[in-house]
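Protocol step 4 of 6: structure prediction from sequence.
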Amino acid sequence: MLKRLLLVPITAALLAVTMLPDRGLSQAADKVTLQLKWVTQAQFAGYYAAKAKGLYTAEKLDVTIRAGGPDIVPEQVVAGGGAQFGIDWLPSLLSARDQGAPLVNIAQVFAYSGMREVAFKSSGIKGAADLKGKRVAVWFGGNEFELLATLEKHKIDRNKDVTLIQQPFDMNLLLQKKVDAAAAMTYNEYKQVLDAGVKPDDLVVIDFNREGTAMLEDGVFVKADWIADAKNKQVAARFLRASLKGWELCKDKPAECVEIVVKESPVLGREHQTWMMTEINKLVWGPPAPKSPLGKLDPAAFKQTADIALKFGVIKKPAGDGAYTHEIWEIAQKK
């Protein structure tokens, strides 16, 4: 009798659940994870904004944003199934693909490179051509290729005409004038120089975008076999649609996005995150206005990045168009 007595309320409960509007089993949110390239900061504000403002929820997605760090390689995490989506610079993705990782870029959020080489005007450096004969600091390990391409453009032999110095992750070598120029991201290390009391008018900034030697940075990638599934294509399109709305929000309401990031992680502080948000928006939106719409990878910029990567040994084989797809971006535009 016990089983028969339980049957009625259980059946009734199931019936009640299925009759609830928009709460059927088919409406369950798809759970996905985004692996960031680095720690929580305004560099990734668009994704945090999409989560905080319910943009992912509106697309029936339950998104976990996983911060990165010095010991985390997003390509390894995604290739190993630890996340469906990853954020990293395009050269790193091309290198992983070259080594056999089945990964593909589905969206390019940063249209421009934030990498610069910075020098004091007192060094006599007025532009990239003046790096000849100078002591030039740069981060090795994958961050040096824009500089190497720029040296080659100006016919400066990196082995004979310039002294390249391994740069630590600070600006002390430049500030102490132990080198003539040093690498800096617009949204981080450049501000460290200004915070040390240096005036912008006392500096020369070499912009690799203007040199035509820039390489694409933050893009969204997935596993190729995962994205081949029709259902996953829709999941990816919904994720991308919400993420791009997050970046649009950060363009229109940067202060709100800063507060979202600071609430998520107060380590860097509001003042630094505000600077970073301003500079990140420039990499996403310009000026100048990007050639491609938000999120759609520019084939010419891809080719420039891939050509530099091949020339300087980041990859051993030409990258090929299979390294990226516009399909998910196009699906995301249809709603």
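Step 5 (inspection) to follow. Confidence is low (pLDDT under 50) at residues 1-25.
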